[in-house]
């Protein structure tokens, strides 16, 4: 199978390349820095700067590109970049697919549980609607609606609403390590907000599962079946690292320092992977402690 990836040099993309190369698939990565693709993703992976450079027919497109949403405060300029790197890039991808004589069979497009907004105490399945109309929700809704336009081209569209990915190679967990290792870790705000998490191994496995499952389409919550509250997450991470976890990050300090972005940390989603499990996907890591224990030797 010939798979085209966007976001192929990111945390999830790198692991997908490794996984699919081992399966014998042919991979092309559309990247702003195509010269780095072979080094980051594997020597057999072709990096292209323009979609017109893709060689041969493509069987599947996996669209994961997007500037990091939690790296810095959401100024007007930052919001424009977050929007462009998702919606405008996906529109470019759609125009390219429309121009092809032989179209891909499937488009797997990234999204996030932020689609729901801050869900409070509600259990959120794929049948749930958005709860709060905040910026992350608006961004994800527009991203998904853009990707779904590929259905009009006869392409199967899968939307992966990812939670917090647990990995030793980067992502949000790496940002927590220093304060926790310095015994300065703890809950954020009141610690009651829900954290939908997923182990990187399950994230790769579920994308591969959805790629090959011919009747899979629409949104899927990519998070483990047992989300935890932020306070429990902090306590469990502290136990795994053998460090205390009682230094709370006051909500007012986050609001002052991060502005609107603080809502991403102070809110959450009790998202459940109902459609994935109904489709027959089995999670390797269903409990947070087991997931963190698996990663602990590399943290």
UniProtKB/TrEMBL annotation:
SUPFAM superfamilies: NAD(P)-binding Rossmann-fold domains (SSF51735). It comes from Pseudomonas lactis. Belongs to the NAD(P)-dependent epimerase/dehydratase family. SDR39U1 subfamily. NCBIfam families: yfcH (TIGR01777). Gene3D superfamilies: NAD(P)-binding Rossmann-like Domain (3.40.50.720). InterPro entries: DUF1731 (IPR013549), Epimerase_deHydtase (IPR001509), NAD(P)-bd_dom_sf (IPR036291), SDR39U1 (IPR010099). This is TIGR01777 family protein. Residues 249-295 form the DUF1731 domain. PANTHER family: EPIMERASE FAMILY PROTEIN SDR39U1, SUGAR NUCLEOTIDE EPIMERASE RELATED. Residues 3-222 form the NAD-dependent epimerase/dehydratase domain.
């Amino acid at each position: 199978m010939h798979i085209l990836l966007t976001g192929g040099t990111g945390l999830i993309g790198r692991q997908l390349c490794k996984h699919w190369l081992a399966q014998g698939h042919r991979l092309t990565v559309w990247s702003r820095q195509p010269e780095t693709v072979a080094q980051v993703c594997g020597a057999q992976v072709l990096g292209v700067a323009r979609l017109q450079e893709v060689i041969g027919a493509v069987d599947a497109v996996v669209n994961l590109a997007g500037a990091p949403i939690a790296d810095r405060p959401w100024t007007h300029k930052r919001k424009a970049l977050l929007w462009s790197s998702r919606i405008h890039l996906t529109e470019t991808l759609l125009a390219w697919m429309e121009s092809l004589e032989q179209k891909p069979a499937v488009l797997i497009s990234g999204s996030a549980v932020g689609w729901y907004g801050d869900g409070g105490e509600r259990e959120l399945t794929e049948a749930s609607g958005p709860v709060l109309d905040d910026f992350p929700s608006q961004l994800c809704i527009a991203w998904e609606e853009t990707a779904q336009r590929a259905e009009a081209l006869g392409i199967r569209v899968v939307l992966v609403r990812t939670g917090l990915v647990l990995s030793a190679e980067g992502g949000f967990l790496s940002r927590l390590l220093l304060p926790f290792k310095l015994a300065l870790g703890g809950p954020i705000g009141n610690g009651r907000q829900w954290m939908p998490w997923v182990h990187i191994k399950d994230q790769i496995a579920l994308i591969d599962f959805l790629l090959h499952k011919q009747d899979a389409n629409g949104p899927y919550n990519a998070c483990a079946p047992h989300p935890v509250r932020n306070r429990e997450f902090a306590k469990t991470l502290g136990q795994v690292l053998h460090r205390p976890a009682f230094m709370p990050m006051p909500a007012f300090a986050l609001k002052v320092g991060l502005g609107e972005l603080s809502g991403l940390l102070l809110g959450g989603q009790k998202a459940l992977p109902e459609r994935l499990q109904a489709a027959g996907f089995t999670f390797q890591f269903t409990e947070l402690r087991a997931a963190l224990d698996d990663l602990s030797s590399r943290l």
